[in-house]
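Suppose you are handed a protein chain with no further information: no name, no annotation, nothing but its sequence. What can you learn? This example shows the usual starting point.
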Amino acid sequence: SSAVGKNSDKKSLYVGGLADEVTEAILQAAFIPFGELREVVLPQDPASMKNRGFAFIEFEEADDAAHALDNMNNAEFYGKVLRINYSRPSSVAKNRGLWENEEYLKKDVPDASGEAAEQDDSAGDS
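A reasonable first move is to predict its three-dimensional structure. Written in structure tokens, the prediction is:
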């Protein structure tokens, strides 16, 4: 039974070797046959707006993640060979945070110095 306990945190997969045209929707369609997905995270390169060649997929069940890993690791996918490993859930959150930060900086802040200048103004007021 210790194997099951050990496996319980193995719900998140690192998926590497992705082709440029792969999207979150494509990944979802490819991995949903193995079981319910909790999350698909596909970090993008802000410069090229393409994926960085890897993603994180989190399943609801560890067994489903294991099946996906067994079936999809080294499989050909959009002309490239997938490399799949278990990923710790913390690395999913960390990478998502990083990706969201870049999106946020790109979208909402004209440039990084604009934000710093605002903080300086408020310090001057008090």
